[in-house]
Amino acid sequence: MSALLSQPATNSGAGTNQPPVTPRERRGRGAARWVVLVLAGLFALLMLAPLLLLVLNAFKTGADYSANGPLALPEHLSVEAFQQYLEIVDYPRALLNSVVISGLVALLGTALALITSYGIGIGRIRGRTWILAVFLLATMLPQESLIYPLFYGAQATGLFNTVWSVVIVFTVLQAAFGTYLLSSVMSTIPQSLLEAAALDGAGRLRILWSVVFPVLRPTLSVLVVFFFVWTWNEFYIPLVLLSDQSAQTIPIALATLQGQNSINLTALNAGSLLSLLPTLVFFLIFQRTLSRGVTVGAVK
């Protein structure tokens, strides 16, 4: 009787085909995890080294930097570099210009990409492959090849030295990339879903707003974040189209710290830190939105 009762237990253990983990194997796995953790920490420290160096030199005086170099700890924390930067640059104005330009480009570029990709990805217009190739080519062109027509076009339309000249240019450029991306995503939307909405009496705009937009909302949120950061860091085209100091963005304001024969390195570090903080705050605010938008395709 006892043999019969013990037999199922033996069979159930054999059916798993998983040998017991020995203490030696358990210690080996624990050591491997520690090695991976140490390597990840060293890699993170290597990635954060430029930021740490930036913060370190932003709180030094000019004399401290000249005497001890960029790698030494500051003798005492000083805000002299920040004061010098704010005396040279109208930081609040440059910050406002950057926020307005980047925000408008992010929203308008995403909206324009949504509308154009709706016609290409779902409307199935003729020659969609060639149209997408043109949009892709537009994103690959160097900005130096576009600057002359953009400069004379801004002068002819009276938009030179206004934020709208940069907003219009980058809205079109960012929307070209967004159209290329969204049109391929829209082509994966089931046609049965669109046909069901059409049978219910929904028009094209209604289908776009009530069916397509909710499906693409995570992808659109990622585009908004990317367009904002990409436009924030743009330098060459805003440098040419925004020569007036009242319309300059933060990257252009940083360039004004470089003199013909000398550079105020501590003030440059302080300005770089101040220009980095808004994008860092932006990423922290939309971090969850960005992670959800990137992983939603893998989850589905």
UniProtKB/TrEMBL annotation:
GO terms for cellular component: plasma membrane. Residues 95-286 form the ABC transmembrane type-1 domain. PANTHER family: ABC TRANSPORTER PERMEASE PROTEIN MG189-RELATED-RELATED (PTHR43744), SN-GLYCEROL-3-PHOSPHATE TRANSPORT SYSTEM PERMEASE PROTEIN UGPE (PTHR43744:SF8). Gene3D superfamilies: MetI-like (1.10.3720.10). It holds the Pfam family BPD_transp_1. This is Raffinose/stachyose/melibiose transport system permease protein. Keywords: Cell membrane, Membrane, Transmembrane, Transmembrane helix, Transport. GO terms for biological process: transmembrane transport. Residues 1-26 are annotated as: Disordered. Residues 1-19 have a biased composition (Polar residues). SUPFAM superfamilies: MetI-like (SSF161098). InterPro entries: MetI-like, MetI-like_sf. It is a multi-pass membrane protein. Belongs to the binding-protein-dependent transport system permease family. CDD domains: TM_PBP2 (cd06261).
